[in-house]
Amino acid sequence: MSKRHEQLLFHYSSALERGDFEAVAGVLREAERDPALEALILQMNDAYTAERFNHANPKEIPMIAAIYPNPTLPRTPRIRWHSLPLVAALGVIALLSVMLAAQMRGNNIFNTGQPGTSGALALQPDPTCNTGALALPVTFYSRPSADAAVLRQGYGTSTMVRDLIILDRTSVDDQGWYFVQVATYTQVQGWITAEQYAALEHCAEAAVVPPAVSATLSPDGATAVPNIAQQPFFVVTMPSGDVHVTYVPPDVQALPSFTPTPAPLHAEASPLPPTIVPPEPIEADGIAVAATDLARLGEGGVCKATTLRTAAVRSLPSPEGVVVTSLPRNTIVTVGDYATSRDAQGNPTVWYVVGVDEVRGWMLATLLDDSACPPILNASVDLPATQLAETRLYVTATAMIQAATAQASAVPVETGVIPPSELAPTAVPFNIDAAAMPPQSMLERAGNCTTTIRTTTDVLSLPSDDGVVIGSLPPGTVVAVIDTQVYHDGQNNSVLWYFVAAHDLQGWVSVYALEAPGCPQSQSEQMTLPPTLAQATSIPQPTPTLAR
Amino acid sequence: MNRTRLRQFIEDESQVLTRTLGLYLNRAGLTISASELLSEVVVEALKHEDRFNPARQPRAWLLGIAANLIRRKQAELARLNRREPLARDLYSGEELSDDEVFDWLASFGETESSAALEANEAVNALLANATPDDAHILRLAIVRGLDGEALARELGVTPGAARVRLHRALNRLRRTARKEKDQVDE
Asked: I need a surface site. Which of A125, A192, A259, A266 has the fewest CB within 10 A?
């Protein structure tokens, strides 16, 4: 191999390590005309990706599984919790049974009146889907209409259906529509047709491959952990990089039950999760592996917080965590614990462990009004959110847990009660960043037509008060204006609505909330929405083929 | 490569592409999914399909599109956060560039025998500052002059993994290399 190749490979790997994609692109341009160099680069990429899958990101494995029905999966990582007792595996099996029961109850968004999540369906993969994975066009519209402004177009993959959070749905002229948000890329929101969603869903893999399928669960030998049909979202996790199990001290009190207070919703939207019977905590070697109990937050115990907007509950403290469920605005959740990390820009972020009914998971602190919770100690921040193995989880723990974690895991775990005197004096801010500009793609869509929010306003899924509230924008927020619509309520009342895009939120606001934009120059055809929109008939329901 | 063949190629390669894009996104610190990025790459590739020279390597072309998309997203994030792109922050001006590091270390093997290199004070000082693992692989590369394939056989890993380890060891020595180079140049 030539010295030139070695030099370019060094240039490529150094650039990749430091995230310099301008330099990466430069080497790839050389590789376009040099097949030997291309082959060497692909060799290095294989080495890097093999490294990554040794610390598997659960989001990546099902992505591959979804494209090919029977993929050759990367080597599954070993569980490092060598002291995890055998009985814990039985607990996992118990959880699997509960989840199967939940599925059989109809945790399916297509059941009328049933709550559901966008990723909970189990379908038998269609053998034609493997070649069609990239041929699923997805178009996001500003309104449930094919003549509305197109917000985004692209090729959907079968994994996208698991990333979609359905915020609203309706039927117009017998055409079903969903207002969705791509959970892993929250700048993508809009209306898609029910047929597009069904096509994505039809090709979705039945099972989400868990991060670990084999493990040494006891010192006596290896016991395989059974494949779980979907992320065990009600096992609150202590991230280890390749397995997610919670150790909770035996003396932690069970949470008192409470009833969340949902905001008024559009008639067709009901994202609250079903009631799931949790398994009993399992005692093993003095360590209680409690699937549903939450650790305490400092000495104050658990606290309550309220969702500020429709918010995703995830299986991991990372935007790459699988969306377990979505909670509507004004849902009261119980906060039991937290973890700190950094976002992609290096800013410190806080994730809370939240609970609603028997569902547990992680939620960004910025999506919650946590003013009733004790301020979080502003401790040194961990590695970026994508490196979950390093995430620090503060727990109240007994000496047994300290010994178990020290023995079994490389994850630095802060243990012990945090005295109130050490808590930071100010709470983590939670307001939406009004200073953040709209995404460049939205500015281009809007033809650089922008304006400013005049007063705190709700953002809705429809150009009508019947739309679901999907968020709110504070005054001073700069938004791109993409579409306009006059809403006639059938009683000689007309209101002008604008489809706007802020940094992380897109939807409809009334003209009263904006500084007069003066643009766009062209407007959509005025459409009279029927006054019976709120009572729209249920959308046509495809018949999924259940895997079980 | 016409549109249909390009799409077929992308579908055939989608597994590898998705894994590589996941790697790129991880390195870039972006939180979008690899499938989302692949979708954008597909749109861009089909949009500019007429610019692709069929005599060239399609994988490198597609990965180059992805790298440029990532670069744009990084620039957008940097603008939103009103800070310089990450790549610039890593060079303090005291560190050697990639080419300087490579040329300086390659120069050892061009003029001295392995035995001489073993006794070379500059090399030994360099390796003394390295971790044991780094020193081992650097000794193989610098003193024994092993290239990627030979290095892989010696380490018992793939050639790609061997290069990754070597390059990381070199990068960790960047600061040390500057001081040693300055002393040698004096």
From this structure: A259
